[in-house]
What does this fold into?
Amino acid sequence: MSGWIKLYRSIREHWIFQDAEYFRAWCIILMKVNHEPKKSLIHGRLVHCERGQSLLSLQSWVEEFGVNRWSIRKVRTFFKLLENDGMIITEGLQKTTRLTVCNYETYQDIRQTNDKQTTSKRQANDKQTTTTKEYKEPKEPKEPKEKKPSASRSVSDKKSDTDFVDKVVNQFASAHGDYEVLAPGKERAAAGRLLAIYRSKYPDANSQDAIQGLRDYFDQCVKINDDWYRQNMSLSLIISKFNEINKILKNGSSKGKRNSISEDYKKGLLEKMLS
It folds into this structure.
C-alpha cells in the first residue's frame, strides 16, 4: 500500500493511545480505508465505497489485526468502543461490513488532481479531533419521515420502502454473521412482513428506531436456545415460525428448559415484538 496518513501529537492524550494493541488496530483502520471512492463487487453485488470507508468482513479485520490475538468477538467489542466515541460508523451488509471513519479529513487532506500542494491553509493552533458530532455519511439518502398510510402512494414512497426492506435484510445478515440470501424475493418478503409487524406495534417509532429494534430482535433470534432453529435461522423461518420462536426466546428451549430473560426484555425493548 502506498500513500500516507497523518497523526497529531495530541493523539497521545486520547484514550486509544493508552492501549498499544488498540492504538495499533486504529492505525491499521486509518491505513486500510479508501483514500478515494471505489466500487467493489461483493457476492455478485456492486457496492459503492466512499473515501474514508472500507468493505471488509469481520474475519478479514481479524486477519488484519492479527489472528493470534484477535477474534471476531474482540473485533466487535473494539468497533463498539469506537462507535460509542464517535470515531467510526459501521453498517452490516451481506457477507461484509461497511466501516466509515468519522472526520476522515483529519487524517488525510484532499489533494488536487494534478498532485500539486493543496491550496487550503491551516491555522497554526488547529488541533486534531478524533470525534465529530457533525459527521454526515456522504451521498446517503436521508430516511423518509414516518407517515400515516394513505390511499395512494407515490413511486418515490414505494422506492423508499423497497430500500428500507433491503436495510432490514442487511441487518439480519450482519447479526447472523454467516448468512447468504439464496432466495432474495422470499427473504425480502419476510423482511417486509417483520417491518410491518414492528411498525404496527411501535407506530411512533422513526426509521432509525425500527432498524435498531429489529437488529436487537435478530441478535436474539440467531442466539436462540434451540439447536435446530439456530442452525436454520433465516428471515423466512422467523415469519413461518414466528410464535414458536418468540415463545422460545421468552421462556428458554423448546424442550422445557428455561433460561433467564435478557436485559433487553427486562427493559421492555422487545416485549411487543414477542407478545
Q: What stands out?
A: The chain has two domains: 10-104, 155-266.
